[in-house]
Amino acid sequence: MKGNMAKILRKFSTTTVDPGEIKRFSQFNEQWWDKFGPMRPLHSMNKLRVPMIREGLANTGSLTSDNRQNLKPLAGLSLLDVGCGGGILSEPLARLGGCITGLDANESIIDHAQKHSMKQGLNISYSAGCIEDFAKNNKEKFDAIVASEIIEHVTQKEEFLKACLECLKPNGSIFITTINKTTPANFVAIFLAEDVVQLVPKGTHEFEKFIEPHKLQRILEDCKDNLYTDG
Length: 231
Known about the structure:
Helices cover 48% and strands 14% of the residues. By secondary structure, it is α/β, with parallel strands linked by helices. The longest helix has 20 residues, at 40-59. This is Methyltransferase domain-containing protein.
């Protein structure tokens, strides 16, 4: 295991992936689908995340009127779940009919995600790697990009978001959820959740990696401008 971990850390040493994050989340390989374990907050967030994505796509006109009324409203749409982890969000999106690709830099977690989705009878395409490399061969391929609870673990946010946008079809949608960089967020997400209640393992989040919404919006706008210019 130590040898494999060393290879992983070297592989991603020059990308937007933080090797420390890879190492940290590898310890949870067997616990992604324990709804009462360290991933409990992510499971709970699906009650908000899944409707947000479904309604967001409906509001942009990506869903047909027929699809909105049936049990698989995402049928015919391709979605990329960046930083998918064990597939906690990928699986419910697949159940809604979406053609889902899950991408994560942690190979061992992707292996667990694949095995779990197969047991559930879900056809999800999982890939291990960083978004920069993935984007090189998947430009303008997806109707929607989902980057949920991942950007607060990313080192180079501009490069990360630019690569995400490169994978997006023209007029596609990107959905991002993350922790705001505020004192209350620091108190709740780190002090309470990690130190006091121990809802998530200590060290899961680093306040310096949090980002304010207006800064995130500015980065996205800059990335779009650069894409148009480079194109």
